[in-house]
Known about the structure:
The chain is of the alpha+beta class. It has helices at residues 6-9, 72-89, 102-109, 118-127; strands at residues 15-18, 21-24, 31-39, 45-53, 59-69, 95-99.
Amino acid sequence: MEQIDPEKNFSESGVCNLNGNAWIKPPMGWFKANVDEAATLRSLQAGCGGVFRDAMGAWLFGFTKSLGTCSAQMVEEWSVFEALQCAWEMGIRKLILESDAQIVLDLIADPDYNSGSLLMVEIRELRNRD
Length: 130
């Protein structure tokens, strides 16, 4: 695994470039969580995880969760839920959440969308807490 050298990989603008992929630091006073999901086709087992970084790009903590068998959208919803719950428990209130499941993030933000999912209700409650 390649080691990240902050002097070499981070520019003054806060962009980290590793093999052509860029990660942008959150604004000062904010945190960023990047979440991802995984599943095996053979056993249909799924899981999710995420990492949290501060405005300097420093790794703070991460999480993983084994989910068993569930739909692709449910795995994506779980990754968002777990990230929001971790942020709340750690006292993080200014959070930028990044996921490759943009459609799930869009559905969470859409007040007219109702999937009937209790997990989606929990996500919205966490998102709207003060």
